[in-house]
Each structure stands twice: as C-alpha cells, then as structure tokens.
Specification:
Length: about 240
C-alpha cells in the first residue's frame, strides 16, 4: 500500500509516529495523523488551517483530552498485529533475532548455500514458515519505503517527560482503517497515487475516536472541510 503514497503522504505518516513519540504515546492514532497532516505545506493542509484546524489547536486538544504519556513502556512497543490471529508476533520475533544475530540476519539466513551444505540455524525453513518470512520481508520493504521522509516533524508544544518510545510505534486499528479509507478515496477518484488529500478525506470520514471530538472542539465541520478540500483539488486540476 505505502508504495503508492506520494512523498507528502509518506511524510505525514512518518511524522504522525514522531508526534506520538514526542507526546509519550505508545500508539499512533488518527489524532496523530491529523496533527501531522495540518503541519505540512500541502493544499489539503492549507484548507484545514484556513478553517481553524491548526497544529497548535489540535495539539492542545489532544493533550487536554488524553494527556501526555510517560514515555517508553517497560518492554518497548512493537507492531503486534502481523500474526495476531494465530498468536504470533512476527515483528517481535524478527526483532529478537536481529538483536541477537545482527541486522538482516534473516535475509542472510535465507540465502541458499552450497549444494549439500548444512542449513544455517537461522534458516527460515527451520523456524519460520517460508510464507511468513515472505510476509515479513514485504513488511520490511514497505516500512523502508515509508521511512524516507527527510524533513523532521514540527517540534510541537508538549514534549512528554521520561524516556521516549523507541522503534516502530504501532498504529491503532482505527488509524489503519483510516489509511485504508485513504486508499479507497483514491480509488473512487481514479487517482493513481495516494496523497495528503486522500489522507485528509479518510480522516474526515472517521466516525469514532478522537478526530470528531477534536473537530467539534475547534468548531470545524467535517462535511464542510471535506467539500472545501475536494473543491481545492478540483480547481487545481
């Protein structure tokens, strides 16, 4: 999915994690996506700011509603949904392997040795089914593609106290659904890419979570914002 994201949209997703980390939250939610979105220089972001949805106001409301986190949890924060359906946290397994044997350990183990040679003890066939290894590699490539944003996130107003969460911060189910909604918005409009405008429309379609509460606190109407964003991009075309 992320390979279709424009550089601007990738930046929003990366910065959402940075904002979550800065605020001491152990997850990346729709509120963090919205905070990152309003901080960019994209047309969709400009529309939001013109209607009073600014970074300062959004961050203040996030802190008012849920507060600042305390920093890193005792055992870190890893994406637990890869194989949750069968009770396996693939990212955690891979992280432990790489911690013990170094970066790219699984990739090295997957290489075919000389005929008749003994398989490496890290050979994925001996610990991880080939299908799951391919799944992990696809996730790794997608994450590498995503983490190409070069501009740092805005420093914001409220750094959390304590040690910051390190590594990948998992997206909430609602945030994942919002990213999927962004893809559907692009498909509906027959756009070959997924841009910040699609992320904005996906966020504005969210019915639960903090986004509706944030917009309500700022006296911003989701339907009005949606219409304004669509109109801005229609005129640009």
């Amino acid at each position: 999915m992320f390979e279709r994201f424009t550089p601007g949209a990738r930046t929003v997703v990366v910065h959402a994690q940075e904002h979550a980390r800065r605020l001491g939250h152990h997850y990346t939610g729709c509120e963090h996506l919205l905070l990152a979105l309003v901080s960019t220089d994209q047309p969709a972001s400009s529309v939001l700011r013109e209607h009073g949805v600014t970074q300062t106001r959004i961050e203040e409301e996030i802190v008012r509603l849920i507060g600042l986190g305390a920093g890193s949890p005792p055992f870190g924060s890893l994406d637990r949904d890869a194989l949750a359906s069968i009770g396996i946290d693939l990212d955690a397994v891979c992280a432990r392997i790489e911690e013990s044997f170094g970066p790219e350990a699984l990739a090295r183990a997957g290489k075919t040795g000389p005929r008749g040679s003994r398989p490496s003890r890290l050979d994925p066939r001996r610990g991880i089914p080939p299908g799951l290894l391919r799944h992990w590699r696809r996730r790794r490539r997608a994450r590498h593609t995503l983490l190409t944003a070069t501009t740092p996130a805005s420093p914001g107003l409220h750094p959390a106290t304590g040690a910051r969460t390190t590594g990948h911060i998992p997206f909430t189910d609602r945030a994942k659904e919002t990213l999927a909604d962004a893809v559907r918005e692009a498909q509906t409009r027959h756009d070959p890419h997924i841009g910040t405008e699609h992320l904005a429309l996906g966020l504005l379609a969210t019915k639960g979570g903090l986004v509706p509460s944030l917009l309500s606190a700022l006296d911003a109407s989701a339907p009005a914002l949606r219409a304004a964003i669509v109109d801005r991009y229609r005129r640009a075309d």
